[in-house]
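Intended use. Records like the one below are meant for learning the mapping from a protein sequence to its folded structure. Do not use them to infer anything beyond what is encoded.
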Amino acid sequence: MKDGGKLYQKDISEYRMKLLFIGPTILVLIVMNVFPLIWSLGLSFTNYSSLVSRKISFVGFANYARILSDPLIWKYFQITARLVIVAVGVEFLLGFGLALLLKERFRGWGLVTTLMLIPMMLSPVVVGLFWTFIMDANFGLLNFLFSLFGLRRVLWLTDPKIALYSIALVDIWMWTPFVMLISLTGLLAIPQSLYEAADIDMASFWFKFRRITLPLVSPLLILAVLFRVIDAFKMFDLVFIMTGGGPGDVTETISMSLYRLAFNKFKTGESCAMAYIILILVIALSNLLIRWIQRTRA
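Structure written out for the chain above:
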């Protein structure tokens, strides 16, 4: 009984020690994450403004109704969706293609892989700034290279037909290595014995790709797409640095619209409501992709 009591006391002391270490972290997470979420949710049902000193009134779902009935907001959602589809689609194809090329080891494989990962390690603000210089209509490197081949200059960031795709191009340059890294991880984890067995049966490259490579790596591919869709849907820094939502509003993503509502118009309550609408959409998209992953695994 004494031994049992000592073990029980030891378990309790270990449990308390764990709480002592984990407790402050949980408290910080609650203060830094949970509290702001609850506070902003409450503000989304009011007419609160961070600039105007007035009595805060409860307005119910009026902020949500105003946002969802605004045709401009739906236009910005369409712009964001177009940007996400183009950027993530190309990142998926290029990233997976590069991973297939890097699957086979060669001399200098580590150096090449490391160099290809550099863009995703850079700050988005830095990337936006130097690509703005590269795409400058008068003094940019791209137009200089075009002029060497006798091509006319392109208004990368000021042409309404091109500006959105210029931002997508920069996002592709920056985040294709991320998709490549996750895809390469999945490809390298596939047992080599499966390919050896297929080679014995004289299977073609297409058969091995369709029956071995794609099914085994598809969960990780969908996971990479999930991360990129969530991140691209919230894209703000590149748009803010490169075009500021212009020319006109052709690159006005939903995050840029949220920024203007909160920090230009100072409609804090309405901007909180808009933030929660974006959050709900991102969660819905995430759940769809997660279900797709589960179905793929099954």
